[in-house]
Amino acid sequence: MARNAHPEVTERRILEAARDLFVEKGYEKTTVQNIVDRLGDLSKGAIYHHFKSKEAILDRLNSADWDYSQGLRDQIMAREDLTGLDKLRALFTLAVSNTEHNKLNQAALPMLNDPVCLANNMHFWTADLPEHWLPIIEQGVADGSIPTEYPREAAELIALLTNYWLLPMFYPASSASLRHRVQCIAAMMSAIGVPVFDDKLIEQTTDFYASFDSE
Amino acid sequence: MARNAHPEVTERRILEAARDLFVEKGYEKTTVQNIVDRLGDLSKGAIYHHFKSKEAILDRLNSADWDYSQGLRDQIMAREDLTGLDKLRALFTLAVSNTEHNKLNQAALPMLNDPVCLANNMHFWTADLPEHWLPIIEQGVADGSIPTEYPREAAELIALLTNYWLLPMFYPASSASLRHRVQCIAAMMSAIGVPVFDDKLIEQTTDFYASFDSE
């Protein structure tokens, strides 16, 4: 059949439509029928031919998102004009910017009310995400810009605290109390020799997480 | 029937037998039949008359355990010879001692591999446990022994980091790397004006969490 001649084109269209709907309506409120309606020329069966469930669509989007984040990190890591600390700040600044792919992550947050989704995310934040930050911190240790005795601990804490402790869905907070929380992280990270949060990044991080609450 | 004349006596016997078995065999490997066998004079039906499931027995043990922890806190809070910092250290020292009730908590740790149990515990560590630590920290702020601008943040971090980040089941660690992690918490808490971890408490905390791994 013609529509299966280029399955990767169909899959990309499904993923883009689903991503747009997850951003607009949230993950939980989006149905496979909504994706059918948005695309206009595919049946529900055709979508299930490519993805066994709505969750499978999100999994594919997440792994693409992770590839994208790793790609950004690799680009920044390759720059020879930046210290480790500069790179850590640059990458963290991207992590708290209102990019399209961060908006998608944000739209998927209500999923964390589901225990299985929460357990999966905790595992990701605990086991995988620290490995994303660690090479940058280690470069900073080597070039002297991040004078820490705690590179692994810092990587684990950045992953855990900025993804779990800063989320207002877990720890409800006004914008002012979120800023106080970010300042607390900044003071603690500086104390262990990882001064990633300057005043500008404190404000940007606060604004980013505060925007989650009003959604 | 005679055995129901004093249901609280029967319930206490069931709870004590279950607690002993959870400590000896672990929660997952204990069956209701094991509890029947241990007690000798009660049928499985009689146990289900008092508790609808093994999980209900654990829930009751946990709430009794929490009442016990709150009782200890209230006793320590009532002492007029101690500063807030002394009280925080005294209570944290009890929290990392090999008491009977800590052994029970430890025996129940494999439950956290279950997503629903993990989600329940994360909620407890996030929403409830900080309220346990906060009044002590606030007293330390008032009497000058805990010179922090971050009392709530410190209560949340103690609850999250010492219950999640220090557990080797989530973040595998040798005894040496656990000590390094506790030293990292000590440095960060001191930096925000909450110098709860002195050298003695660093060693005791390390030994306590390191013992979890070999079980």
TrEMBL record, chains A, B:
<dbReference type="InterPro" id="IPR001647">
    <property type="entry name" value="HTH_TetR"/>
</dbReference>
<feature type="DNA-binding region" description="H-T-H motif">
    <location>
        <begin position="32"/>
        <end position="51"/>
    </location>
</feature>
<dbReference type="InterPro" id="IPR009057">
    <property type="entry name" value="Homeodomain-like_sf"/>
</dbReference>
<keyword id="KW-0238">DNA-binding</keyword>
<dbReference type="InterPro" id="IPR050109">
    <property type="entry name" value="HTH-type_TetR-like_transc_reg"/>
</dbReference>
<dbReference type="InterPro" id="IPR036271">
    <property type="entry name" value="Tet_transcr_reg_TetR-rel_C_sf"/>
</dbReference>
<protein>
    <submittedName>
        <fullName>Transcriptional regulator, TetR family</fullName>
    </submittedName>
</protein>
<dbReference type="Pfam" id="PF00440">
    <property type="entry name" value="TetR_N"/>
</dbReference>
<dbReference type="GO" id="GO:0003700">
    <property type="term" value="F:DNA-binding transcription factor activity"/>
</dbReference>
<keyword id="KW-0804">Transcription</keyword>
<keyword id="KW-0805">Transcription regulation</keyword>
<feature type="domain" description="HTH tetR-type">
    <location>
        <begin position="8"/>
        <end position="69"/>
    </location>
</feature>
<dbReference type="GO" id="GO:0000976">
    <property type="term" value="F:transcription cis-regulatory region binding"/>
</dbReference>
